[in-house]
Amino acid sequence: xxxxxxxxxxxxxxxxPREVVRELDRYIIGQDEAKRAVAIALRNRYRRSKLSExxxxxxxxxxxxxxxxxxxxxxxIARRLAKLVEAPFIKxxxxxxxxxxxxxxxxxxxxxxxxxNAVRMVKDEHTARVKTRAxxxxxxxxxxxxxxxxxxQNTNNNPLDFILGRKNEPEPTEDEKIEVSRKRDEVREQLRxxxxxxxxxxxxxxxxxxxxxxxxxxISIGDMMGGMMPKRTKLRHVKVKEARNILIxxxxxxxxxxxxxxxxxxxxCEQSGIVFLxxxxxxxxxxxxxxxxxxxxxxxxxxxxxxxGSTVNTKYGPVRTDFMLFIGAGAFHVAKxxxxxxxxxxRFPVHVNLxxxxxxxxxxxxxxxxxxxxxxxxxxxxVDKVHLTFDEEALREIARIAMLSNETGEDIGxxxxxxxxxxxxxxxxFNAGGDEMPDVYxxxxxxxxxxxxxxxxxxxxxxxxx
Length: 466
Description:
Elements: H1 17-25, H2 32-49, H3 53-56, E1 64-67, H4 74-84, E2 89-93, H5 109-129, H6 131-147, H7 159-164, H8 174-192, E3 200-206, E4 211-214, E5 217-220, H9 221-224, E6 233-239, H10 240-255, H11 258-272, E7 274-278, H12 292-308, E8 311-314, E9 317-320, E10 325-330, H13 342-346, E11 350-353, H14 359-367, H15 373-382, E12 386-390, H16 392-408, H17 416-424, H18 426-431, E13 440-444, H19 446-452
Parallel strand pairs: 1-10, 1-11, 2-7, 7-10, 12-13
Antiparallel strand pairs: 3-6, 4-5, 8-9
Helix pairs in contact: 1-2, 5-11, 6-8, 6-10, 14-16, 16-17, 16-19
């Protein structure tokens, strides 16, 4: 029996499908079908990582297509998913790829951006591991800078001095070494007591080397020279608290194994990467059409290879897309799923439908979610000493008006609540502010809502009569 070598599937290994749905419920109301689909897809990534290598190669992710009107939670599910799992994630608008050229911009840039996200994620994890060591080294450098500020480079120095390692400074005596050691201990204690945080100093930082773009990959000129040329530096005037962060970042960079970061990021990108293709219905063409529809079909055919599974060249090496999870989303008001080319339809076998929001859904959005808009506005206005409270009838009235606005105008889903709240609290937001302003306590009632919202008035149907 072949040896089973587990992959790193990210944080999803810690979450069962029920736990994923429970986390999403904190921010998204309803849409249980879509939540269950993405939760199962995430868990399957973990399950696959526990199989033998031969079996893993046979199991491909089941891509998901979310269908539903705007503002019902498609993009929010993707956003929350990105925060929930420790996996490379990228969200792109499919309409981007119709803006440049006949068949849109290079769709392989999606995978290059995903790889960049993977490298950034892995580098952050490695940086966290070496943080303690980096802080010690940064403190040591900071002490040196406070005792011996960097000298400006003499432009008349012979360039051979760098190559031959010549030094112009004399060797310090034993007494000087003892005095320097005593001074260093004294400054170190002051740093640890926080007495020097506001002190300004000069710090020498490296200038980033120019980059050349060749075949979609960035190549450093310094790397091309094999490190023969000295690194260019510049002096910055900063406070000690800012200098500490700069030095910690520099020391962390030295302690990190860049090759290990790239190798781990490449594996995580290929095995755990998630691509969210929003507005995918906007690139659906019509059968027997010409003009823009032909261009849209060209974009679909460009996207197809990366969804089917291909290899994309990046500056970190070739990246396979075979085992990435793709989630498509679109309203499909005008176009239908069947308007997508058959090959692309086949690569999204799991279809989930998201429903329009009801008045009760709006009430739940205002009261039950962790990021409820009522909490957001309450926190914002408390900065200016305005303390808001909303009674239950007021929230139901706000939900009713949002629902009415969506029915009589463009249905923009939960985004309508932002427009309603801006209008409702316009007077309060404008008049609040100022150090001399006393604390104000305001309770938003149903009568206040009806008085301040134009949409609360009865709909004038006369403008619809011919």
